[in-house]
Design goal:
The complex is a heterodimer of chains A (280) and B (284). Chain A has ten helices and ten strands. Chain A is an alpha/beta fold and 280 residues long. Chain A has two domains: 3-102 and 178-279, P-loop containing nucleotide triphosphate hydrolases (Rossmann fold); 119-177. In chain A, helix 5 crosses helix 6 (163-175) and helix 8 (221-227) crosses helix 10 (262-279). With 284 residues, chain B is an all-alpha fold. Chain B has one domain (65-274): MetI-like (MetI-like fold), CATH 1.10.3720.10. Helix content of chain B is 77%, strand content 0%. In chain B, helix 9 runs antiparallel to helix 11. In chain B, 32% of the residues are buried. Classes of the chains: A alpha/beta (280), B mainly alpha (284). Chain A binds chain B through residues 1, 3, 6, 75, 78-80, 98-99, 101, 103-105, 107, 109, 112-113, 115-119, 126-127, 129-130, 157, 159-160, 177, and chain B through 170, 172-173, 175-176, 178-183, 186, 190-191, 194, 197, 269, 271-272, 274-275, 278-279.
């Protein structure tokens, strides 16, 4: 694709930065989704008959024990991995064929995902280079860094930052693209409990500001219930969505009050019950 | 905890301990490195003056210095070094560009690799020196011949390390590039080449050293110009002081070129340089 084509596609998108989804459209929708890895010993089916959809603006967590295929599912939604032939996966009503404009990913391992030789600013700007003029790029990078509280660290290198800050850089790199959907793969899994809580609240605030749809993969039950509008439990081998739970907790959520809310405890309880059942 | 991790407040008291244990960042200040050469040169001069040197044709350091001053004064030495450096640097730049391009193609394209790698292995195994007689036949006794030889020797290390480097783009970065829908050009210039750069720097140094050697050898056996021919000439006229002046200056030029290259790397690619320093510091 030529540079100018990329640029005009971007500016067309910039003119209407809000989601173009029609009422009733889903951000993602999949049915009969399966994935098989070809191993030397034969095909290994990882996901089987996965079906779910998520509405624009919704915060959906995909919860399950490690090794169930959560990351595989997220990679399919990201367009990084093709699902098995015959699976149906759509993004905003159209069949998903590859990485989509308007979808940004935050990877699990911030250290290997950031470019260690670029400053924080240049890491955040990466996706805009060659598509957005320098002045607008600087503005958008400033705004994204501001949103994650890293305005004063723009000229540092990633390895000069703490783990939590590096993950913020990755979130800023995703936000600068003005995504309609954020895909997050256990983004806080490697962080200590305090930083994790802090970033969870920042994520909820960012989502409030941007109105983005979030699909959040985690193996942490509390995290899933605390953050989400809806929790999908992925379990079994091959895995499928075994349970869907609506989390009708009030917003904004609070690390102390929400987690003491009897409703929160009830939902948390039933998620644990589901997971226990799946293991027997 | 080792003494390397002292807090700033206790620095003054724990410094001797740190030094004894060889703190990783510790380096002797540079004049210390001059002690040995100065002592050696002084011993050489004394031995020569006392008539204790068994070889009559080995000049004294002072004679070498005098001859270097004379040769500089009459313009012969700067002219010869100018010629040799021009051949070496031009050849090195041309060879490095070709090597980087070839290495990128080899590292990124399975097809290019499959078709070309056997030829690359054969060509780079042939000692570059053995091409000089052939180069003289083709390009005659010219500066061009020297440049071609210097370029030839620079191509291979750069090509092989660039190939290994661009092939080292991690799956995390490939996923990132795909999700940001980066163009092929952007993937090469923003991910593959930066990934390869530290390896390429090592190769660029090897290539530069090789280019200087080959330029001089090409002048000794091929093109009668520059430092190489000056050495041959001085030998035939039995001027050992001149020969030593040329040889020692060549060493100094090699050191200077290497230092310039390191400086350029630090200035032009600060992110790499700093990231490597940090990794070395933490990775104990």
């Amino acid at each position: 694709m030529s540079m100018s084509a990329a640029r005009s596609a971007q500016s067309a998108q910039g003119a209407q930065s809000m989601p173009a989804a029609q009422p009733g459209d889903h951000a993602f929708s999949c049915s009969g989704l399966f994935v098989e890895y070809q191993l030397r010993t034969g095909p290994l089916r990882v996901l089987e008959d996965v079906a779910f959809s998520c509405a624009p603006g919704e915060f959906v967590s995909i919860l399950g024990p490690s090794g169930t295929g959560k990351t595989t599912l997220l990679r399919i939604l990201a367009g990084l991995l093709a699902p098995g032939r015959g699976s149906s996966v759509t993004f905003e009503g159209a069949p998903l064929t590859g990485p989509n404009e308007g979808v940004a990913i935050v990877f699990q391992d911030y250290r290997s995902s950031l470019l260690q030789w670029r400053t924080v600013r240049k890491n955040v700007a990466l996706g805009l280079e060659g598509r957005v003029a320098a002045a607008e790029r600087a503005e958008r990078v400033d705004a994204a860094l501001d949103l994650v509280g890293l305005s004063d660290r723009g000229n540092d290198y990633p390895w000069q930052l703490s783990g939590g800050m590096q993950q913020r850089v990755q979130i800023a790199r995703a936000l600068v693209m003005r995504p309609r959907v954020l895909l997050m793969d256990e983004p806080f899994g490697a962080l200590d409990a305090m930083t994790k809580g802090q970033l969870q609240d920042e994520l909820l605030r960012v989502r409030e500001v941007t109105g983005a749809t979030v699909v959040f993969v985690t193996h942490d039950v509390d995290e899933a219930v605390y953050l989400s509008d809806r929790v999908l439990v992925l379990s079994g081998s091959p895995a499928r969505v075994t349970t869907e739970l609506d989390v009708d907790l009030p917003s904004p959520r609070d690390q102390v009050a929400t987690k003491e809310d009897p409703k929160y405890l009830r939902i948390r309880h039933s998620v644990y019950e589901t997971l226990k059942g799946a293991h027997q | 905890m080792t003494a390397g991790a002292v807090t700033p407040g206790t620095e003054a008291t724990s410094r001797p301990v740190a030094r004894r244990q060889g703190r990783p960042g510790w380096r002797p200040r540079w004049p210390i490195g001059l002690i040995i050469p100065v002592v050696l040169v002084a011993a050489w001069q004394l031995a020569k003056s006392a008539g204790a040197l068994p070889y009559a044709n080995v000049p004294s350091p002072l004679q070498i210095w005098d001859s270097a001053v004379t040769l500089t004064g009459n313009g012969q030495l700067p002219g010869d070094f100018g010629h040799t450096l021009a051949a070496c640097l031009l050849g090195w730049v041309i060879g490095s560009v070709i090597g980087a391009a070839a290495g990128t193609a080899l590292g990124l394209s399975r097809a290019v690799w499959s078709y070309s790698m056997a030829s690359v292995e054969v060509l780079r195994s042939i000692p570059a020196i053995s091409f000089i007689p052939i180069a003289v036949i083709i390009f005659l006794q010219s500066l061009k011949m020297e440049i071609v030889i210097a370029a030839w020797v620079s191509i291979w290390p750069v090509a092989v390390s660039t190939m290994a480097g661009v092939g080292g783009v991690t799956s995390a970065h490939r996923d990132l590039a795909a999700s940001l829908r980066m163009s092929w050009t952007a993937r090469v210039t923003k991910l593959a080449l930066p990934t390869a750069l530290p390896k390429m720097l090592v190769a660029l140094r090897l290539g530069l050293a090789g280019a200087l050697v080959l330029a001089i050898v090409a002048e000794i056996v091929g093109n009668p110009h520059g430092v190489g021919y000056a050495l041959v000439n001085a030998q035939q006229q039995a001027q050992p002081a001149e020969m030593f002046a040329y040889v020692l200056l060549t060493g100094a030029v090699g050191v200077a070129l290497n230092a310039l290259l390191s400086l350029a790397y630090r200035r032009l690619a600060p992110g790499f340089h700093l990231a490597e320093t940090a990794r070395r510091g933490h990775g104990r």
